[in-house]
Amino acid sequence: MTATATKTETVRRNGGRRLVDRVARVRELGIVVALAALFGVTGAVNPSFLTYGSLRDILLNSSIVALLAVGQTLVVITRNVDLSVSSVVGLSAFGGALILADHPGVPIPVVIAGCVLLGAACGAVNGLLVGAAKVPALVATLGTLYAFRGIDYAWAGGRQVNAADMPEGFLSLGTRSVLGVPLPALVALAVLLVVGWMLRNFRSGRELYAIGSHPEAAVLAGIRVRRRIIAAFVANGALAGLAGVMWAARFGTVDATVATGKELDVIAAVVVGGVAIFGGSGTVYGAALGALLLASITSALAVLRVDALAQTAINGALLIAAIVLDRLLALRVAAALRRRRFHDDH
Amino acid sequence: MEDTPVLSLSQVSKAFGAVRAVREVSLDLYAGEAHALAGENGAGKSTLVKILSGVHQPDAGRILLDGEPVEFGGPANAQQAGVAVIYQEPTLFPDLSVMENIFMGRQPRSRFGIDRRAMRTAAAELFARLGVQLEPDRPARGLSIADQQLVEIAKALSRQARVLIMDEPTAALSGKEVARLFGVAEALRGQGCALLFISHRLEEIFKLCQRVTVLRDGGFVASHPIADITPDDLVRRMVGRELESLFPKQETDTGEVALSVRRLTREGIFTDVSFEVRRGEIVALAGLVGAGRSEVARAVFGIDRWDAGSVEVDGRRLRPASPTAAMAAGLALVPEDRRQQGLVMDLSIERNIGLAGLAALHKGPLISRPAERERARDWAVRLRLKFARLTDPVNVLSGGNQQKVVLAKWLARRPSVLIVDEPTRGIDVATKAEVHRLLSELAGSGVAVLMISSELPEVLGMADRVLVMHEGRLVAELDRAAATEESVMAAATGRSVT
């Protein structure tokens, strides 16, 4: 009798752990499956899609959005959003390019660090607006989306920095490969792993989830909510600053319109990647995979000769499918948890 | 008990704008003593709790920890001082695991960051100490309120809290769960923890506590050893006047069947539920929390769809899953959770009262403001609502008065069937009596009342008939004479043979 009870108990415990784990993993596994299917089908129709050059392009194209998606996840997890990232990228790209063109003597690492700091400063503005002044993130960052872009325009004054104006050593950063993998993709990967690890293993990382999961409870639990939210925005801004330099190095031609509209791609990647838009759950790995999936679809559709205009609609459909999937999963999990409680009573 | 209190408040005051929520209140919490804080809604109990927990800072007066003045700048300070609070509303993080909820901000660490294995072991040990079976890895989402409170207690244990404050922890618990909670609280007290306990249920105060402090309208009334005071005295101190009898259901002749529910089933939620409610009758739906009572009410009112069965109001079959149809047929539902479901908290009193009957307030295509105001004033007077202006948002009202606004909203439609779900939860004694009087009057005027309640005295005092649910099934129907505490509880816990 006791033995059976203990056994059922163990089974149930493991069952519970498995269920939760499975759902968490399933979400990211789903994107991997979607990626595999996409590459399989597209590759079968047009084998050139699977060549090294093509795969390399996809990695290059997705790495900037992936980097931004990692940063955005930090903010979204706290039940906020940062719409201004594209403007921060634009500001950082132009600022970096301008320094390199006009002051060739400044070392490249200093320029990169400067761009990251510029991004962090922009993030601090957002963070103070949202965390300290309690402006809703949607409105605050919509405001700074325009404000930062406006500063960019004023600064540029119509000027464009071309590849020829920038040192070769800098431009090669955007295209060089290490062991066959493009450098920007490696940077994005490194950032992804570091941030992912911090979110999982640092107390402050867990507090970000707590804040997004139940903001009032986070206050009552003694979490320094304001400080954490500001930190999330600053980190996101810094990553956007880094993405800006990467943009300049990769494309070479920089004016004040760089990255306009990219914020929506980033948020789409985050949502497709399974990060709950109302905070509290999701991982940076999912968000980065989401960015990779969206970039792959764009490339695949081009290879499959689908009208470029239709691509946007397909991305939209994918986004909605991802949200529906999340909703269904959430309902399944909630139902399973309820059932378990029912059994627990006996 | 002559030693220094662990935590005490000395002449503490706190105002919000013009409202003086707490005025010069003193309170001493001793190690190993359970202290009750009694008072009606709006007496200042919750504000006091928030001062003790560092959420609010007092405008005047001092907080003393072991006799030394301290300042709690925020919840983190109070926690460091050993103060743990179980709030009325659950404060867990639904997306995070139970163990992370317990150890948030204090997760055990190894060289490589958070040590999940150590955290899991520690959580399992806490649950073993509490004698509950909860999986440390499951998310907090979906936990019953009782389990959520146990997680909060585990949190307090893990912090080695010296002061545990419980703000109406039993409001949503069944009898068995209350007993378990009290067992844990007693054990903590035995280990030298100071308890501060808030409850509207007097019998619980007398069962658990050794000392009681009474507040009225934000002011300090008295502090007594519990042995020196009777329940009647306590109520008198809380209200400051004599009360009418608590459960004044008057005998009425019952009329036609107004609500008839036949073999109603919603897969996995409730099964084969049949009952009738006649005009002039109050029928109570009793059972443990989670037995499916509110779910039946929601289905009858058309919020959720049902899989089989039928609902008739005054002999006409209701269209399923349509609250509009239910309202048109004369049904009204006062939901369990007035803040989330019953009221629009930021809207004014008059707007809230008008909300369910906007059709009657129309003049042409527009809503008539004077008519809305007229209706609100009329019902506010009838229900003895305490308010400053009808244009005040309902969130400034006390819980009892909020409940009156919800009632007014539905009564203004003159329903033939009124379903009330936990009509007096979290309401002070005086307002409770008024709500009971009101329900009784309504039945007297020919309304069929279906009352869901977890409070046995209320069920037994008010109902002409008692229906008992257990795990989604209707397991007993008891008339007034047959309904006793024993018979209802036996059926609710599944021990009876119907």
From TrEMBL, chain A:
Question: Pfam families from the entry?
Answer: BPD_transp_2
**Which keywords has UniProt assigned to this entry?**
Cell inner membrane, Cell membrane, Membrane, Transmembrane, Transmembrane helix, Transport
Record's keyword annotation contains Lipid metabolism: no
**Can you name one GO molecular function term for this protein?**
transmembrane transporter activity
Membrane topology of the entry:
Multi-pass membrane protein
Q: How does it assemble?
A: The complex is composed of two ATP-binding proteins (LsrA), two transmembrane proteins (LsrC and LsrD) and a solute-binding protein (LsrB).
What protein am I looking at? Autoinducer 2 import system permease protein LsrC
From TrEMBL, chain B:
Q: Name one Pfam family in it.
A: ABC_tran
Q: Where in the cell is it found?
A: Cell membrane
Q: What is its main location?
A: membrane
Q: Which organism is it from?
A: Nonomuraea turkmeniaca
Lineage top rank: taxon: Bacteria
Key words, A-Z: ATP-binding, Cell membrane, Membrane, Nucleotide-binding, Repeat, Sugar transport, Translocase, Transport
**What is an example of a GO molecular function annotated in this UniProt entry?**
ATP binding
Keyword Glycoprotein among record annotations: no
Q: Which residues form the ABC transporter domain?
A: 7-242, 252-496
Q: Which InterPro entries match?
A: AAA+_ATPase, ABC_carbohydrate_import_ATPase, ABC_transporter-like_ATP-bd, ABC_transporter-like_CS, P-loop_NTPase
How does it sit in the bilayer? Peripheral membrane protein
SMART domains referenced in this protein's UniProt entry, alphabetically: AAA
The protein depicted here goes by the name Sugar ABC transporter ATP-binding protein
Spell out the GO cellular component terms annotated for this protein, sorted alphabetically and separated by semicolons: plasma membrane
| Coiled coil region boundaries | none
